[in-house]
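User: Hey, my collaborator sent me this sequence without any context and asked if I could get a structure. I don't really work with proteins. Can you help?
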Amino acid sequence: QLSGGQQQRVACARALASRPELIFADEPTGNLDSRAGLEVLGFLRGAVDDLGQTVVMVTHDPGAAAHSDLVLFLADGRIVDEIPEPTADAVLERMKRFDTVRGPSGGGRLAQEG
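Assistant: No problem. I've predicted the 3D structure and written it out in structure-token form, which is a compact way to encode the shape of the chain:
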């Protein structure tokens, strides 16, 4: 039986093995310890740098986002901001500027301070 981290690494290796042009990674480090998470991010970064693949990653982790070439911030199905060549600190600071405001219906919208 494989641990969660091992399962995640195997899934990542399978996704990369066929060398698709586009890889979707939904919270690829979400259930991993920091070491295993960095290993998965390294696999994904290598797919881009070494194999010319494109990775679209969804994450709420500024550290994971910092491994990307471009961070897009989404709200209500729209791109509301972006950071090219992000650092973890820059992503975290930008995230802090956004505030979710809920109306009486429970729906949300994204408001940016400033």
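In plain terms: The beta strands are 22-26, 54-58, 70-75, 78-84, 98-102, 108-112. You can pass these tokens on to your collaborator as they are.
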